[in-house]
């Protein structure tokens, strides 16, 4: 691979829970506030636009630090596919 070729990364995780429940955990602000982020941080949903092209913008607080992140949803096919990119973000 040359330096000009972007690298692709795919991560897959299989949950031991009903598919509908796992999908719902990603699709509502209430659920994301409860579980997203490291266990030692407190998560706050700033905005959630759960649709292809939509953004989940969030704030994480812990150990005296604050950081922000965002998902950019690419493909959503309930309840079997949820494709997004996750990155750090500005406030």
Automatic annotation (TrEMBL):
Residues 16-90 form the Activator of Hsp90 ATPase homologue 1/2-like C-terminal domain. InterPro entries: ASHA1/2-like_C, START-like_dom_sf. It comes from the Bacteria. SUPFAM superfamilies: Bet v1-like. Belongs to the AHA1 family. This is SRPBCC domain-containing protein. It comes from Chitinophaga varians.
